[in-house]
Amino acid sequence: MRLFEAAGGGTPLLLLLVSLVSFGTCRVMAQKSYIVHMDTSYMPKHMATHDQWYRSVVKSAKLVGTQATYDEKQLNGAFLYTYHRVISGFSAVLGENELEAVKNVPGFLSAYMDRAVSKVTTHTTDFLGMSLGSGLWPASDYGKDVIIGVIDTGVWPESASFRDDGMAEIPQRWKGKCEGGEGFGATLCNRKLIGVSYFNKGAKAALDPNTTISIPNSGRDTEGHGTHTSSTAAGNYVEEASFFGYAAGAARGVAPRARLAIYKVLWDVSTASDVLAGIEQAVADGVDVISISLAPPYNVSLYEDPIAIGSFGAMAKGILVSTPGGNSGPKGRGSLENGIPWALTSAAGSIDRWFAGTVSLASGEEITGWTTYPLAKPISGQLPLVYNKTMSHCNSTHLFSNLNASSIVVCESENFHSLWKQSGFLSYSKFVKAAIFISDNPDLHEFVDFPYPGIVISREQSYGIIKYCRSSNGVRRPHASIQLNQKTLLGTKGNPVVASYSSRGPAPSCPLVLKPDLMAPGTLVLAAWPPAIRPTYILRPNNVTVPLQSSHGFNIDYGTSMSCAHSSGIAALLKGAHPEWSPAAIRSAMITTANPKDNTDTPIKDPTDSRGIASPLSMGAGQVDPNRALDPGLVYDATPQDYVDLLCSMHFYSTQIQTITTSSKYNCSTRSSDLNYPSFILLYHQYHNQNVTRTFYRTVTYVGDGPETYTLDASQLPQSFHTTFNPVKLSFKKKYDKENYTFTLTYKGSQTGEVDFGSFTFVGDNGKHSVRSPVVVAPMINTW
């Protein structure tokens, strides 16, 4: 009996597979999970579904590769997922010879091993200028009925951020479900949290047989990451939120009236196959925006990147996919992890909030420093203040052995990790009651864990303390007190700055498109947190680590995952205000209206850059401005074919392109490296010291009302750029009119690998619209 035949008739698949492997040399190979892409036009006509076809392929491969019999139970254990919305194919556990058998099946496109993936607000909306009375919030009705799909670690549904107070009935277009599981009842969803699903087949298949790790069947968040990101994007209003008293206030997500659909794909072991299954389900359920705060497997091309592949299918169906730039900064250029041309990529920046403690010297001087020590702990009275150059290393318990009274010591810290180590040594001394840490490293203001009573001050602030300590004599010893009363300061100047951990462009997977796109708040973001997970730690005597449980169900976290969640919420608001906009139009509006200046109206800083000023490789176009994005004037739109033209220019094989697009209808007849993108990047060979020239072609679509003419302002381009624009004026009569322009840039390459940048703006004559595009020139990097 034939198992099935190839499309259009031909050799039965079983006989074909048998002929491919010599039984005399057949060996049982180690079983691994693979993601397999298939061309569905080859599906045999008598097969009812793709799932049936794929299962038959796997079963036939198993019969050839491993054993003479293979029952349905074994097949169910080896077959993981069928994909048919964002990719065409399946994932399964296969041996090496079984994989070779699958590769010879008609319709096979590509296969790669299932790889690991990784995870990468009371005030942030105020910092972004969002207002109850005007702008994007009221224009979008606060994201009413827009559905955000969050691909992450799950959710803690009992959090107050997911209450459905004030929410209308669930939109009828919603096709998803609330999937019950271990410790998670299907009744826990509501009109805010409208769906929860989990995907763990890949994770379970990847487990070592001898491991003690357990992968539950549940959408419940056991890590906190997914609860934090989803509530940041679309959490409801919650009064009296705080982190141990810091950042106290009313918490709310960026799109507080949007709906949330949660897809748990991250576990103790996380795999690409589960991520693809989550994206696939989100598209099927009818979400409008996908927020995926994950980093793809390292060093993979776009055609093997599950986030890139899944997001292309989502984009083609009109769904914007929002991703983080990654937390691999500041390793220099080329550390950016999600360089997907058809997705939105966010860098992380700071906000204007400062958590403060105070040192009061007996001389009368007061110094305000940084702390997030979670326990309110006033150091009662004036204690001896101890400083000397040797002791300030604070790297040995021996340094404090001569103390014979309760004291405050002064330590010099290089970074966050050294502060933790120093805190451990301090905890062994019964006489050290608190510490003053001296450091100019911005890392110390980005991480929330502060394990020991104390504050961080700058080196400049330390001069007064050191002078005071040295000027005291044996009769009058220096004394001080420290107040750790969980004080929060707002409106601090010089923000945002680019976070040191935020990955820098260009993206090795696609350096032809400038990434990141923009910057959003990512540092010290307050959002919901599972109460069962203790968010921070303190050190008790003898370096004993004690986890603390938050009494408010909130935590402060950092990372481009948090900036991604902010951008996802803003994209949802824009989708609510402009439901007709494509994903590219929404992204364009956010890029061209982003602000390159901080709250002192000076260029945004990058503390890790020798010039101090942030380049587009670290912040994209600048800090996202939600209210200006509502009315951008012009947008740079793009279709799926435009992205295919880009892939063709990258010399991908047709099978690799079809792996990404799932379709053979696209072709390379119009290949072009010049994607219709709002930003520009020119790469040069570092050591050639020659002029490099490139002409960019762009089409802009008018989304304003009434006639308007835009005039070029190129005053913000550096003198090292030799440029020509044609034309310099763009005139539009009505909404959705299109105009083309060219931009030619010539730059002489630098032997030292210099990065140069600027921007140009098309300014509308109605006084409302300024459409700004960042431009950067940088040395070429190694690509993936």
UniProtKB/TrEMBL annotation:
Top-level taxon: Eukaryota
Sequence segments annotated as region (Disordered): 210-232
UniProt feature, compositional bias: Polar residues: 210-219
A Gene Ontology biological process term: proteolysis
One term under GO cellular component: extracellular region
Key word Ligase present: no
Pfam families: fn3_6, Inhibitor_I9, Peptidase_S8
Extent of the signal sequence: 1-30
Residues of the Inhibitor I9 domain: 33-117
Tagged with keyword Transcription: no
InterPro entries linked to this entry: Peptidase_S8/S53_dom, Peptidase_S8/S53_dom_sf, Peptidase_S8_subtilisin-rel, Peptidases_S8_3, S8pro/Inhibitor_I9, S8pro/Inhibitor_I9_sf, SBT, Subtilisin-like_FN3
One GO MF term attached to the UniProt entry: serine-type endopeptidase activity
Active site positions, chain numbering: D152 (charge relay system), H225 (charge relay system), S561 (charge relay system)
Sequence ranges assigned to domain Subtilisin-like protease fibronectin type-III in this UniProt record: 674-777
PROSITE patterns named in the record: SUBTILASE
Family to which this protein belongs: Belongs to the peptidase S8 family.
Protein name from the UniProt record: Uncharacterized protein
Taxonomic lineage: Eukaryota, Viridiplantae, Streptophyta, Embryophyta, Tracheophyta
